[in-house]
Structures are given as C-alpha cells and as structure tokens.
Amino acid sequence: NAGVTQTPKFQVLKTGQSMTLQCAQDMNHEYMSWYRQDPGMGLRLIHYSVGAGITDQGEVPNGYNVSRSTTEDFPLRLLSAAPSQTSVYFCASSYSQEGRISYGYTFGSGTRLTVV
Amino acid sequence: GQNIDQPTEMTATEGAIVQINCTYQTSGFNGLFWYQQHAGEAPTFLSYNVLDGLEEKGRFSSFLSRSKGYSYLLLKELQMKDSASYLCAVGDSNYQLIWGAGTKLIIKP
C-alpha cells in the first residue's frame, strides 16, 4: 500500500538543465496535482489533472509541463531550470466523486530541488 | 483577491491548550481544512469544516464561522510530537485548495 510515491527525494540542477519529477499513486485516484512550497508562503498549485488525458494550469505553471497518460502517473517536467525554481515540490492525489474532488489529499514525501 | 492569514509562529507548553486562528477571503467556499506538517515531511489531513460550528476529533477540534471568514484549530493536552506547522486551506469555487503559509507551533517542556 504505497500511496503516493515521489522520486527523487533530493536533486541539484544547474541553471538551464531539464529534468522530470516522478509521481505515482496506487489508490486509483482521479485527481492529481503538483505543488511547490517555499518558506513563508503557502503551497502553490503548479498543475493539476482530473483524470487521464486531462491537465490544467494552476497558480504558477510557467516553466513546468505535465502530462497524464495513465491514472497512476503524473510527471512534472522542468524545461530549463532557473534558481527561482529552487523549492520543495509535492505531488498530491485525491479521489473524486461525480466530478467533485475530495479534499482529503494524500501527499507524496516531497522532492527538494536546488537550482544553482 | 484570495487571501488566507494565520500567525507565523506560536509557542505553547506541553500539557497546555493552544488555539491557532485562520482568517480567509476567497472566491467561493467549499470547506475549510487543516493539515499538519512536521519538518521535512509532507502535509497530512487533520480536519474539515463546511458548516458553522465545532468539529471535535480527539485532542484536536476545529471551528468555523463562514460569516466571519474565520476558523481556528484547538489543540488540547499538548504533546511534544505536536510540534509542527499547521496549514489552513480553503476550497474555492473551482474546487481547488487555497493554502495559508502555515503556523509553526513550538512546544516547550
């Protein structure tokens, strides 16, 4: 019963490099999302998905891409890393019922990303 | 705009009671949520209020007043393991969660 699995846990990138943060859940949740968490700020939504093949932008989508080819996986791609993307990234998932999302999110353990 | 305010940091004594306040202004309202986040870990769900009043769950209680845009989380019989950040979040009209910056709670012996 893994829940939400995020990899890697830590990553250091050089400015301009690209990478993919992986997120997988085994709870058959339709809703998945990516957040970033910075000191002194609330969690900010980057992208989200309400089901396979459907993605949408959140509050801070610039510099990030996502795709949702399966219910289980929701990778986040950094296209060209910048120091401003240094943050802790969390993936979260939840079930939805009749189109309404349950707010009892299950979070992954997070990825600490440093861009130098 | 959308705004959620909560104190940055609070200190309390082991065994005591502490109340963490949260005020909000959001476009639409689909419930208020409290999450706990220990340092270096992911947030975990604590409570959910959609109607006015008090919801009690063991040592933790959460209160909501929709007319005042106000909620609080009450922690009783504080234990050292309660040292964590407590995040207030509101479900908006698009069923997305808007998050406060969190309140870091420090418990002293």
Keywords:
heterodimer, A: 116 residues, mainly beta, seven-stranded mixed β-sheet, 13 strands, 0% helix, globular, B: 109 residues, six-stranded mixed β-sheet
Number of helices of chain B: 0
* Alpha-beta content class of chain A: mainly beta
Helix/strand order of chain B, N-terminal first? EEEEEEEEEEE
Helical coverage of chain A, percent range:
under 10%
Greatest contact between two chains: A-B, 18 and 22 residues
Classify the beta-strand content of chain B into a percent band.
over 45%
Shape of chain B: globular
Q: N-to-C SSE series of chain A?
A: EEEEEEEEEEEEE
Shape, per Cα inertia axes of chain A:
globular
End-to-end Cα distance of chain A, whole Å, is: 36 Å
Q: Structural class given helices, strands, pairing of chain B?
A: mainly beta
What is the quaternary state of this protein?
heterodimer
- Average pLDDT across residues of chain A? 93
Distance between the termini of chain B: 41 Å
Which sheet architecture does the biggest sheet of chain A show?
7 strands, mixed
Mean pLDDT of chain B: 94
How many strand units of chain A?
13
**Roughly how many Å is the radius of gyration of chain A?**
13 Å
Beta-sheet strand percentage of chain A? over 45%
Low-confidence stretches of chain B: none
Task: Please characterize this protein's 3D structure.
- The complex is a heterodimer of chains A (116) and B (109).
- With 116 residues, chain A is mainly β.
- Chain A has strands spanning 4-7, 10-13, 19-25, 31-37, 44-51, 54-57, 64-66, 76-78, 87-94, 96-97, 100-101, 106-107, 111-115.
- In chain A, the strands form three sheets. In chain A, strands 2, 4, 5, 6, 9, 12 and 13 form a seven-stranded mixed beta sheet that branches.
- In chain A, a hairpin with a 2-residue loop joins strand 10 and strand 11.
- The termini of chain A are far apart.
- Chain B is globular and about 40 Å long.
- Chain B has strands spanning 3-5, 9-13, 18-25, 32-37, 44-49, 53-57, 60-65, 70-75, 84-91, 97-99, 103-108.
- The model of chain B has no long low-confidence stretch (mean pLDDT 94).
- Chain B is 0% helix and 57% strand.
- The interface between A and B is medium-sized, with 18 and 22 residues.
